[in-house]
What does this fold into?
Amino acid sequence: MKKALISGMTGQDGSYLAELLLSKGYQVFGMVRRSSTLNDDRIRHIKDRVVCVQGDLTDQSSLDEAIRVVKPDEVYNLAAQSFVPVSWNQPGLTGDVTGIGVTRILEAIRKHKPDTKFYQASSSEMFGKVQETPQTEKTPFYPRSPYGVAKVYGHWITVNYRESYNVFACSGILFNHESPRRGLEFVTRKVSHTVAKIKLGLAQELRMGNLDSQRDWGFAGDYVEAMWLMLQQPKPDDFVVATGKTYSVRRLVEEAFSAAEISLMWEGKGVDEKGIDKRSGKTVVSIDPTFLRPAEVDLLIGDPSKAKRDLGWTPRMSFSDLVSCMVHEDMARLKSK
Ligand code: NDP
Ligand code: GDP
It folds into this structure.
């Protein structure tokens, strides 16, 4: 039985990847960090089928111990401080966890189990101020946030350990991917959750940041399959994982309101203090400067041709199905509460 160790198992991708690996007959170990409250919402349904190992990407000895004891065939490094706005507020911590943390886990592999296959969760945020469109594995990086900068470090140290120490190390450059398990602070889930609340009469307005930025959004369940496929290839390599389509944040908002069958109005005159248009009674979407960023990534669109050709991977869920599924799942959860 193959053994896989996932860092970040309690996160969105970690939970989907754990399900996938269990379905393939792996023994799954998940690295979890100490917290004063239990944080297992996303993995509760599989908790009796996975083994939790204590560890933190800021602590070398815990990573050494995890690799030494588990002796995994595959390691998926999904742990990170993953939210871009927090990276301006905590740039040092983001660099330590999201950047140097990758070196720590690679060092643990090099010392204790050098034939482990390693997957690094790299990000389209590395392209930042994009140097070409669409973005491929060859597009130069130009990160626009401490998060993006830390991910560039993580990417290159992964390539470096592959070239210097012959570690089977792959970097998956994944574009934004979402699901009903996405953190509430990310734009898709913030919108789906707020729209669900508006539908159920629990909220009356939606406050947004930049509506003009464009993202290549896919479904997390599809993307974890690409991670696994990378580690099943004869040679380690780096791959862009994306849908090849891009949509604006404005379109995301419109799509979510339409999925919930609510008519929306953009901010204007005649709006009362609850965000309702006085004449039409319609829910209003407004711009709140607190959600604007010091530097923006305006347009991301990935070219997944290499993943299609070499991994046989294709995304399955469309943008409108993804948004609709997130809105309906949020409504169902809120109703059941
Ligand atoms: P999440 O934010 O949902 O999950 C992050 C995970 O990292 C959580 O399990 C968290 O644990 C863990 N973690 C955070 N800090 C530490 C630490 N110091 N030591 C150990 N574990 C830690 O992210 P996603 O699942 O969405 O993303 C997975 C990975 O893919 C991340 O590296 C992200 O940056 C990257 N990525 C994501 C994209 C996306 O669109 N989702 C796009 C491209 C890359 P806890 O639960 O305790 O907080
Ligand atoms: P990111 O691409 O990793 O930064 O993922 P996010 O989901 O956090 O943001 C995607 C885009 O949505 C960015 O361009 C944000 O500026 C934009 N955006 C607009 N309004 C909001 C908001 O209220 N919250 C978040 N998180 N992003 C927003």
About this structure: The longest helix spans residues 91-112. DSSP finds ten helices and 14 strands in the chain. The chain has two domains: 3-179+218-245+302-311, 187-213+248-298+319-336. The pocket of guanosine-5'-diphosphate (ligand 2) is lined by residues 84, 125, 176, 185-187, 190, 208-210, 213, 215, 249, 291, 293, 296-297 (CB under 6 Å).
